[in-house]
Amino acid sequence: MVTKPHNAEFFDGKSAMARLVHARVMGDTLVISQTGATDVQWPLNNVELVSGGKPGQALRLKLHGDHGSRLTLPEGSAADAVIAAAPAILTGHKRRFWKGVGISVAVVLALGVAGYATLAVAPQALARFIPDEVVNSFADGLEKSVIKSSKRCDAPAGRDALNKIARRIVSGTEDPPTFSLRVFDIRQAGNKKLINAFALPGGRMVFSAGLIENADSADEVAGVLAHELGHVALRHPEAAIVRVYGVQMLLSLFTAGQGADSLGSIAGVIAVLRYSREAEAQADAYAVEVMENANVDPKGLRNFFARLIKKNTSTGGEAKADDSTSFRKRIEPLTDLFSTHPGTDDRIARLVPRPGGTEPAILSDAEWRALKAICK
Amino acid sequence: MSPPMFGQQSAENPPAGSEPVRIDYVAHPGLGGIAISNFFLNLITLSFYRFWAKTRVRRHIWSSVQVNGEPVEYTGTGKELFLGFVVIMALVFLPLTLIGVGLAAYFGPESAAVVAFQMMFALALITLYGFAIYRARRYRLSRTVWRGIRGALPGSAMSYSGKYFGSLLLAPMTLGWSTPAMNLILAEHITNDMRFGNVPFSFSGRSGPLYARYALCWFGSLLAFLTVIMLAVWLFASGAFDWLKPVFDAMVSDNQASSSADTAVGLAIFGGIVFAYLFYVAVKSTIWSFYTARELNVFAQYTRFSGAGFEFNATAWSLITLWLGNMALIILTLGIAQPFVEQRVMRYFVERLSVNGTVDFAAIEQSRARVDKRGEGLIDALDLDAF
Question: Which among A5, A140, A29 has a CA at the least distance from the CA of A78?
Fold first, then answer.
């Protein structure tokens, strides 16, 4: 296709001088000719729209990749002729628009995947690689947030009883993880006794005095201990450290470095100590196995959970203790076991009591009374 | 032929190719669609579309500005802005965050090391302000094309950044009185570095003519501040805030009783900060408009390009109405109308700017300054972007 030459205005990209030229389409080329200079040839499939293109508008064009030269065709037949020869010129901006949308959506999806990896996959995998110093400094901070100024419960007879439970729990297990266990008289708002147990990084377990006082038998305390031992063995607290730092890093990507230290806050502590349902189920499974090996009936743990749920419901607490998605639950202080150990109803179902009831007792009555009095 | 000499000569005796210069804002439709689609795309991409959104708005607004009937063109792309962001994140913010996280992990989240690091981090960000402003200006000039010729800012962002940091330090030390002098130094620096094609802009003048207005606004603000304090004291004394007490008590008793005094003080401080900020914004946008108008006009007079001088016709009242209109637009549309705010600002500047004298455009050659492949990452990260 060859059109007749049209008058046009040309800027050569070297100076701001306007040049009057003739422009015409010859085949797939836009030929720009001026007197006294060689023709400029623009391949039509490389021509881009600068502005115009609608009826009544001058058509401003440039060559892709060339930062300077511009051609202005007056409205009417000149503009129409070029558009007729290369209608794709008018749709270039649409392609550009969808490219922008595509890249930004892809970025968000990629960040979503990175975020999922940070939350769900990476922490558990990286947990074993955290240096001991980091684990300990982190555990120190968490311990402070959990026990605050609570009194340590360390009556010798009670401590001996607790040690006996611990020894019994690991008795059948080869190569159990190293752990320490201390009891503190932790109170919550209104001076109410907290009923909870924590597995902090580095194998540091903390039981609240309320938990021991609420237990009906040594089996129950042993069950909780076995469960927390599961967290320790599976490195859930260490994984939580990675998770918290990962979330901070992602947050700082969005906020450019601000808001990067929520660690000291209550929300930060909960975020670290609150495990996923999968983690709880794994710790339960570990506990059941350990109890089997130690010849301890999982019924104790089951009873303890069941009684705690009943207690929660009757005091007007949340009817379902596994309300894990509730925002309130997430920001609430450490009120009870379920604020850090979600998903209890289905968990109880999986703690199957042993049929026989032939297990040797863990503690004698005297030892059990001593344990109950560990805070006295 | 050195460009400044050229400018002086042409004012006396314009060469044959010289033209007078006329700048117009010729609005064309399409910005509404851009505003709405940008808003929703930003929403679904958690704001990652913003680089392309900005680019579309600039393309539209730039092309509405006509110099001697020929529209100005914005040639930047969203990808360039996005890559600028990625590079700044990867080279500056991610390493710094990793160091901060490492320190927090090793020494504990509230340790002295972490506090010191955070303070250094904040200080480093402040020293980057001037750098970010200069680099953003350079990017925008290099993507602004008229008659096929682009702008440029080939100077050193570092030396500008030093002056900028100095102005930030001096302002509180002099209770603000260094501002006109430092603003002049900054404007002089960046304007003298600016080029269209190979021809530089030039800026020369003194800050003296700014000080009468500055004094007026400074004492005006002081008066407004004292009036508000006295009014507040009088209102408190006369019991005008008593109705707030039950609300206050209710908020306090919601928290733990032991810390109720702390909470009350905290709430009072928070309320004070919010009020102080609103007061600052109000004073800055009303009283200080008298100074801003003067500064805009004076700085325009100090600026020359080739054989042309500039005149700007800002008034305090027009700046205030511009600001009020922009606030109303943003608030009433929940931010969707942001592109129209930018359009209003561009229009304000274009319509009040006039150019006297002539420019020999045919003699202007293409800029040979290096063109950056990316742009504005830092200013985006620092959230300094004011169009």
Answer: A5
